[in-house]
């Protein structure tokens, strides 16, 4: 699924036909996003899988048009998640919660940037930093550590103009996030999070 999504987004970027220019424009959007992990894990020693809950949070993104319909977008936000190891030899184990800081940079093609309806596609890279990892109170576990992640990202969205400057935005992204997790300094887990991120919000053109 990841390979198909990335390939489709990149192919659309490379084959899109040119339209009117918007070089030098800035777009700023504030979205409410639903971060839905497609989680899986390979847990050494105790086996099992992982369950990571969905998070709904605000997100800020900043887009700059480098020329014509081509733009770069920086996506900023933090997402807290509850984590559980499921189906292990010890049963289900509550691993507490952790917060992700996943800044994502994409290159976008905007098909109709001066129209009323302005669809776009994008592809890029993601870096995810994990912090505030807290084990549940009274847990028999003593420590949990998450390694940072580098991965690809793909997106598609559309802006609906309200007037010359303001617009409503709908956006969906798929982000490749993998992390090596160490529990109690001894139990290693390779965890794929790979969320689909759906967002809706309001934006302004500068």
| CATH top level label | Mainly Beta
Percentage of residues in helical conformation: under 10%
Runs in which pLDDT lies below 50 for 5 or more consecutive residues are: 13-21
CATH fold node name: Porin
The tally of helices reads: 1
Round the mean pLDDT to the nearest integer and report it: 90
Inertia-based shape: elongated
Provide the β-strand percentage band: over 45%
How far the N terminus sits from the C terminus, by CA atoms, comes to 36 Å
| Structural class assignment | mainly beta
What is the CATH architecture term?
A: Beta Barrel
Spatial strand arrangement across the major sheet = 1-4-5-8-9-11-12-15
The gyration radius over C-alpha positions equals 19 Å
This entry's quaternary arrangement is: single chain
Q: Give the biggest beta sheet.
A: 8 strands, antiparallel, barrel
Task: Explain this structure.
- One of its GO terms (biological process) is transmembrane transport.
- Residues 1-21 form the signal peptide.
- This is OmpW family protein.
- The protein is mainly beta.
- It has one domain: Beta Barrel (Porin), CATH 2.40.160.20.
- 7% of the residues lie in helices and 65% in strands.
- It contains one helix and 15 strands.
- It has one helix spanning 2-15, and strands at 26-36, 40-43, 49-52, 55-67, 70-76, 79-88, 91-101, 104-110, 117-134, 144-146, 149-161, 166-175, 178-183, 187-192, 196-205.
- The protein has an eight-stranded antiparallel barrel with strand order 1-4-5-8-9-11-12-15. The chain has a four-stranded antiparallel β-sheet with strand order 2-14-13-10, with no helix packed on it.
- The longest helix has 14 residues, at 2-15.
- Residues 13-21 have low confidence and may be disordered.
């Amino acid at each position: 699924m990841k390979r198909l999504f990335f390939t489709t987004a990149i192919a659309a970027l490379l084959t899109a036909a040119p339209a009117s220019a918007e070089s030098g424009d800035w777009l700023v959007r504030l979205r409410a996003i639903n971060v839905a992990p497609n989680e899986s894990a390979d847990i050494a020693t105790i086996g099992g899988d992982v369950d990571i809950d969905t998070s709904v949070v605000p997100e800020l993104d900043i887009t700059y048009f480098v020329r014509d319909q081509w733009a770069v977008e920086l996506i900023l936000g933090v997402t807290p998640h509850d984590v559980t190891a499921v189906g292990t030899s010890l049963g289900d184990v509550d691993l507490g919660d952790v917060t992700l800081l996943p800044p994502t940079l994409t290159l976008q093609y905007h098909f109709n940037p001066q129209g009323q309806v302005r669809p776009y596609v994008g592809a890029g890279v993601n870096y995810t930093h994990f912090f505030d990892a807290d084990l549940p109170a009274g847990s028999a576990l003593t420590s949990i550590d998450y390694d940072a992640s580098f991965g690809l990202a793909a997106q598609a969205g559309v802006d609906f103009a309200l007037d010359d400057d303001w617009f409503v935005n709908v956006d969906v992204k798929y982000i490749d996030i993998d992390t090596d997790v160490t529990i109690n300094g001894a139990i290693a887990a390779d965890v794929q999070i790979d969320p689909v991120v759906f967002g809706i919000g309001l934006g302004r053109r500068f």
